[in-house]
Amino acid sequence: MARGLFDCSGKVTLVTGGNGGIGLGFARGVAKMGGDIAIWARNAEKNAEAAAELKAAGAGRVIAYQVDASSEEAIVAGYEQLLADFGRVDCVFANSGRASRSRSVLTLDAAEWHDLLAVNLHGAFFTLREGAKAMVARAEAGEPGGSLVYCGSLSMVHGIAGINNYAASKGGMGAVIRGMAAELGKYQIRANTIAPGYIKTGIGADQGMSEEMKARMAQVDAHFSAKTPIHRAGTIADFEGIGAYLCSDASSFHSGDTIFIDGASHIHAPYAFN
C-alpha cells in the first residue's frame, strides 16, 4: 500500500514513554504511515493499551517493553532485546522525562536536582547514544541513515523561574543533539529536538476530576490559549505529523534543529496585545 511522502513502512521506531501523551502522539503518526514501533515504558497496562491503539492505527509490528529509561544498564539491555526482536532501529524518540518538583532556585536541593537529571538528561543521552551505535553499525554494513529525536521544552529558550533542573536537562540535551548532528551526519544520521508548548496530554482530562479542578484547568487552558498566537492548547494529535516526518525519508536532510510545536508561542512577546 502506497503511503506517500511520509512513508514509514519497513522502518522501526523506538519511543520512550510511548504509552501516553506526546510520545504516543509521535508513535501514532509513525503507525499511520505503516512503521513498526517499540515502546519503552514502565506501566504494563498502559503499554498494552497503547500497543493495541497503534496496531489499530496501521503500525506493522508493535512491541511494548518495560524499561527503566533512567538506567544505563536497562537501556543497553533494552536495545539488545529490541534488536533481537526487530533486527534494526531507524528512529529513536527520547521522550521519557518528568516535571520539576522545584519552585525556587533557593530551595532546589541535591536530591531533586540529580533525580530529575537521571531521566531527562542522562537517560535521554544513553537512549540516543545506544540508538546511534546501532545506526552506525548498520551504516558501516552498507545501509546508512537514521533519525535521533529528543523531546525538549520551551524552557530551552525561555527563562522560567524555579525549575532550573528541568531547564538544565532540556538545554543540555539540546546541545547534545547539535553535537550528534555534527558528528553523525557522515553516516546520514540526523538528530533533532522537538520543543512542545502548552500541550493537553490527558493529564488534564475531565474524567475523574472534581468540579473545582475542572474549573481550574479551564482557567489554565484559557490563560495559555490567550498567550499563544494560535489560540488553543496543543494536543497529542499535533505530534503525529512531526513523528511521521522525522521517521520518514522526507526529513533526510533536516538535522541539528529545534522544531517548535507550540502554536508560535516561543516567538510571541509576553507584552504583545493580541
Automatic annotation (TrEMBL):
Gene Ontology MF annotations: oxidoreductase activity
Protein name: SDR family oxidoreductase
Alphabetized InterPro entries for the sequence: NAD(P)-bd_dom_sf, Sc_DH/Rdtase_CS, SDR_fam
Matches recorded under PANTHER family: 5-KETO-D-GLUCONATE 5-REDUCTASE, OXIDOREDUCTASE
Keyword Oxidoreductase recorded: yes
Keywords: Oxidoreductase
Family: Belongs to the short-chain dehydrogenases/reductases (SDR) family.
